[in-house]
């Protein structure tokens, strides 16, 4: 992990029980991280548990059928509209839109798994959905894995973690941020969230 890409300690939630309290109270949650790390699975479970609207940047904003990318201006317009909703969980990193998303967010969950785990997650997801479109992806975007995607995952921490840290510093400097760095932490958080408040 690139230690230069770390959040200020005052923003980090390190205690999972405290993190669960933040998530229970939050009306708007942003989940970011590398592909294959489990962002969508976590987001869907939290959305279901607390009755939040689930917004996937991949499904609802970025992609059109056949892996055609939607125009960037249109993407921003969709995000600008969706963030006005009162209660949501948004799954997707895209630091270029932090300027409009973070001011409406109450807590950030950064799924920051080791890259080998993310590669395994992406490959096993592909194997599960081979020839089909998974629910959190835009219709007509058949699940795929190629070298470009694997390279993106392998270099994510080096290339994108500093952009995430910088974006949070600029557009959400007072937001609490939970970093989940293992599957065990993710399971523990979901267990805590599943208990009665």
Automatic annotation (TrEMBL):
Gene Ontology molecular functions: kinase activity
InterPro entries in alphabetical order: Cytidylate_Kinase-2, P-loop_NTPase
Keyword annotations from UniProtKB, A to Z: Kinase, Transferase
PANTHER family: MODULATES DNA TOPOLOGY, YALI0E33011P
Protein name (database record): AAA family ATPase
Organism: Rhizobium pisi
Lineage: Bacteria, Pseudomonadati, Pseudomonadota, Alphaproteobacteria, Hyphomicrobiales
């Amino acid at each position: 992990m690139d230690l230069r890409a770390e959040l200020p300690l005052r923003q980090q939630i390190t205690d999972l029980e405290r993190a669960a309290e933040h998530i229970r109270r939050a009306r708007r949650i942003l989940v970011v991280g590398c592909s294959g790390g489990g962002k969508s699975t976590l987001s869907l479970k939290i959305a279901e548990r607390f009755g939040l609207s689930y917004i996937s940047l991949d499904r609802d904003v970025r992609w059109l059928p056949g892996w055609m990318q939607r125009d960037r201006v249109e993407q921003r317009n969709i995000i600008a509209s969706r963030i006005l909703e009162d209660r949501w969980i948004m799954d997707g990193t895209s630091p270029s839109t932090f300027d409009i998303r973070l001011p409406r967010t109450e807590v950030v969950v950064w799924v920051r798994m080791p890259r080998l785990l993310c590669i395994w997650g992406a490959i096993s997801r592909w194997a599960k959905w081979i020839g089909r479109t998974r629910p959190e992806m835009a219709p007509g975007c058949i699940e795929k894995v190629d070298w470009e995607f694997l390279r993106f995952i392998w270099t994510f921490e080096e290339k994108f973690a500093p952009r995430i840290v910088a974006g949070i510093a600029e557009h959400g400097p007072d937001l609490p941020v939970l970093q989940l760095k293992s599957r065990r932490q993710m399971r523990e958080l979901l267990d805590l969230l599943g208990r009665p408040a």
